[in-house]
Amino acid sequence: MEEILKVEGLSKTFALSRKQQKIERTQAKKKVAVDDLTFSAYRGEIFGLLGPNGAGKTTTLRMLSTLIKPDSGDAVLDGCSVVREPEGVRTKIGFLTSELKLEDFFTPNYLFDFFSELHGVDPQTCKERKQRMFERFGIDKFAEVKVANLSTGMKQKLSLVISLVHDPEVIIFDEPTNGLDVLTARTVTDYLQELRAEGKTIILSTHIFSLVERLCDRVGIIIDGRLITCGSLDEVCNGMNIEDRFFEIYKEVKGGEE
Fold first, then answer.
1. For residue 64, what is the domain's CATH number?
2. 141 found inside a domain
3. Which residue among 49, 115, 154, 255 is least packed, with the fewest CB closer than 10 Å?
4. Using CA of residue 86, residue 91, residue 93, residue 99, what is the dihedral sign?
């Protein structure tokens, strides 16, 4: 297998405000969000980071996407360092999060063209790619409808399409089905499998066990910012289903706490 992402010793700590200290029920002024994370992902696979809310999944993906800088460690994505060559990394990835907000005033047509130009996609390729992807996701019927008037599911599909305007080799998804209705979620997960079949690499975070079982070739379990185990589903599950295995690991890490 060809290694396309190598993460070594990635760490990130955040300062906690008084409000955050109350929420976290701690007197500590800092929180270690990601703690010495090390793993690899390979070309043409779906790699999942599985963990509860607050485990460090989103922080990890934001560092891989160069949205925030690690305090220490590095990740090399298709030959580019997220620390030393962030601009190079951005040309190679598509990043999608449920927190992505599209301007209400613009239309899908305008946004696709704008982001294509931003990524240096030539006009003819942009036109062909837009037609193909708009038809694939049913956006073509709403191409001139302002974002403000689109359904939540259509906005999510538009966000997905826009994140892939430049046909990236690595696609990074933070909770790809979060907040979606079952039909839209199925459309998104089917497309992830199509991308894998095309040789793309997908890195996703999730807390949904069924999503891991359905999509992921390999998975890493992350708890309190630390990668506890990583490997193929068979290797990680050790003869159990992923849900039971996760809670077995969780109890071991947390000392029986649930």
1. 3.40.50.300
2. no
3. 255
4. positive
CA dist., res. 183 & res. 200, Å (int): 23
Cα–Cα distances in angstroms (integers) from residue 122 to residues 107, 115, 166, in the given order: 20, 11, 10
Phi, psi of 197 (to 5 degrees): -65, -25
Looking at residue 205, its pLDDT comes to 94
Question: What phi and psi values does residue 8 have, to the nearest 5 degrees?
Answer: -135, 115
Q: Give the total number of structural domains in the chain.
A: 1
The pLDDT assigned to 218 comes to: 96
Closest C-alpha among 42, 47, 81 to residue 64 = 81
Q: Is residue 126 part of a domain?
A: no
**The one-letter amino acid at 167:** D
pLDDT tens per residue, range 226-242: 999 999 999 999 899 99
| Alpha-carbon span 61 to 67, nearest angstrom | 9
What residues make up the domain containing 71? 3-99+168-254
Mean pLDDT on 163-187? 88
Residue pointed to by tokens 């599911």: 153
Can you tell me which residue has the tokens 């800088």?
A: 69
Q: Measured between alpha carbons, how far is residue 85 from residues 69, 102, 168, 184 in Å? A: 12, 27, 17, 35
Query: Residue 135 has which token pair?
Result: 């038809």
Q: For residue 49, which of 206, 208, 192 has the smallest C-alpha distance?
A: 206
C-alpha to C-alpha distances, 223 to 50, 97, 174, 247, nearest whole angstrom: 9, 20, 16, 11
Question: 253 — phi, psi (to 5°)?
Answer: -70, -40
CB 11 within 8 A of CB 35: yes
Instruction: Give 67-101 pLDDT, tens digit per residue.
Output: 999 999 999 999 999 999 999 999 999 998 766 67
pTM of the model: 0.90
Structural domain includes residue 196: yes
Residue at 110 is within a domain: no
